[in-house]
From TrEMBL:
It comes from Hoeflea halophila. Keywords: Amino-acid transport, Cell membrane, Membrane, Transmembrane, Transmembrane helix, Transport. The keyword Disulfide bond does not apply. Belongs to the binding-protein-dependent transport system permease family. LivHM subfamily. This is Amino acid/amide ABC transporter membrane protein 1 (HAAT family). One of its GO terms (biological process) is amino acid transport. The keyword Transport applies. It is found in: Cell membrane. Signal peptide: none annotated. It is a multi-pass membrane protein. One of its GO terms (molecular function) is transmembrane transporter activity.
């Protein structure tokens, strides 16, 4: 029973990271109806920026807001300079650009900070709580993730900008008719997705260590969570991220054939299964277009 409780808590902690990545993926998908394959690399680059500031002696409490702010600006800049000019270009053009962004950001991080693995300090210190059932870092991951998700819920539910962003994502044409600047709402969505990714990177780096390829598997888990919950449902993406974290940990613990080496294929299996049997996800809606 203790092992089960520990794996559930670990699954919730890592699932929170997957939920953040899934939410970032869904935010961009709702804005431009394409999956951003460079989402993980953007988060990785932000984490390297945080690591560099820590190496320079900047206090941890200042590093996090600075990194989030810089990531937000970077996300807006990428949308304005790279994505916006594409406009209504074919899907293949967007895919090629996203793959290009992936390669450029990954190589740039390796060029600046090299490809060696670097330890990343935890903001919550060492040690554990509740008789070793949960580590301080895992507890901090859960607390930060829940706080971020709550703030996003309040932002999109009760603020004018949040409501405008939802309207721009749901129906751009109608949003323009009521005076909403849809282009800038999309740019804000990119900025917020980059900021959320930065938080996810900072939280997961002490566990997986810091290197240019650290977010590849995390992004796949985020995609799995987004597909499981539904690419049209932010709440579903969050739920899916937590579910992927729990399923991954329980399967790796209780199915000997899976172990630690085959955890990643679980995410791919979930993606394929959901797309085959319920393409809209558990909480997604079927989009009907009049022709």
């Amino acid at each position: 029973m203790e092992l089960l409780a520990q794996q559930l808590i670990t699954g919730i902690a890592t699932g929170g990271i997957y939920a953040c990545m899934a939410l970032a993926v869904v935010m961009i998908y709702q804005a431009i109806h394409h999956l951003n394959f460079a989402q993980g690399e953007m988060a990785m680059f932000s984490t390297f920026i945080a690591w560099q500031m820590l190496a320079w002696g900047v206090p941890y409490w200042l590093v996090i807001p600075l990194t989030v702010a810089l990531s937000f600006v970077g996300g807006v800049a990428i949308e304005r300079l790279v994505i916006r000019p594409l406009g209504d270009a074919p899907v293949l053009s967007h895919i090629v650009v996203f793959i290009g962004l992936f390669a450029i950001i990954n190589s740039l991080a390796g060029f600046i900070w090299d490809f060696t693995i670097k330890p990343f300090p935890s903001a919550f210190g060492e040690g554990s709580r509740f008789g070793g059932l949960i580590s301080n870092h895992q507890l901090g991951m859960i607390a930060v993730t829940m706080t971020v998700l709550l703030m996003l819920f309040l932002f999109f539910r009760y603020t004018r900008v949040g409501l405008a962003m939802r309207a721009a994502a749901e129906n751009p044409a109608s949003a323009r008719l009521v005076g909403i600047r849809v282009g800038w709402m999309i740019a804000l969505g990119w900025g917020m997705a980059a900021a959320i990714g930065a938080i996810a990177g900072i939280l997961i780096a002490p566990i997986v260590f810091l290197e240019p390829n650290m977010m590849l598997s995390i992004l796949l888990y985020g995609f799995a969570g987004a597909v499981l919950g539904g690419l049209t449902s932010p709440i579903g993406a969050v739920f899916g991220g937590f579910m992927v974290g729990i399923i991954e940990n329980l399967a790796g613990t209780y199915i000997p054939e899976i172990g630690g080496e085959l955890k990643l294929p679980i995410a791919l299996f979930l993606i394929v299964t959901v797309l085959v049997f319920k393409p809209t996800g558990l909480f997604g809606r079927t989009v009907v277009q009049r022709v």
